[in-house]
Amino acid sequence: MVTKPTPGAKVFPFRSDVATSPSYWHANGLFTVLADGPSTDNSYCLLEQLLPKGPAAPPHLHEWADEVFYILDGEAEFLLGDRIDTAGKNALVFIPKGTVHAFRINSESARLLNLYTPAGFERSVAMLGELTQSRNLPPPGWTQPEVPDDQRARLFADIGMRPIAIPDPFRS
């Protein structure tokens, strides 16, 4: 299907790859930003994530962004609204905006593509993470940089991300 460009869009063809795209240690994983808001006229962002075994994201929702995970390698378990589902290599998980979700990695590590439409989530990775040239998980003992609560709250409000205060099925 061929579609016409959106009038006024400032999107240009681009190429990116994991070896040269900006990577961040964030939430105990490696997040590589393959496409961001400025390069897609904010229509989407795409990240590759390398995550270790264990809880990955506590319960939250995205007020106006749909989220997609594609499992490249490993296995993850997802809270999707009121149910829990497991996804392995080559599985796709779609999370519509407004859906409470959380997840954990069941395998020793997992590699996922993570898409948000519209863009915005990549801003949280850049603000809350640590830019790195490494293409590996953070070293043992690494800790997330401190960000003042008011800055974190403003960012989450700006991108429509809301933590949800319910029991996390993936943490004790």
Outline of this structure?
Helices cover 11% and strands 44% of the residues.
Distance between the termini: 47 Å
Shape: globular
Looking at the chains present, what oligomeric state does this protein adopt?
single chain
Number of helices: 2
Using brief descriptors, characterize the structure shown.
172 residues, mainly beta
Any overview of this molecule?
The chain starts with 22 loop residues before the first strand and ends in a 9-residue tail after the last strand. It is mostly beta strands. The longest helix is centred in the C-terminal third of the chain and has 11 residues. Strands 1, 2, 3, 4, 5, 6, 7, 8, 9 and 10 form a 10-stranded antiparallel sheet that branches. The model has no long low-confidence stretch (mean pLDDT 93). Helix 1 packs antiparallel against helix 2.
Strand and helix map with partners:
Elements: E1 23-26, E2 29-35, E3 45-62, E4 66-73, E5 75-80, E6 83-88, E7 92-95, E8 101-117, H1 121-128, E9 130-132, H2 149-159, E10 161-163
Antiparallel strand pairs: 1-2, 1-9, 2-3, 3-8, 3-10, 4-7, 4-8, 5-6, 5-8
Helix pairs in contact: 1-2
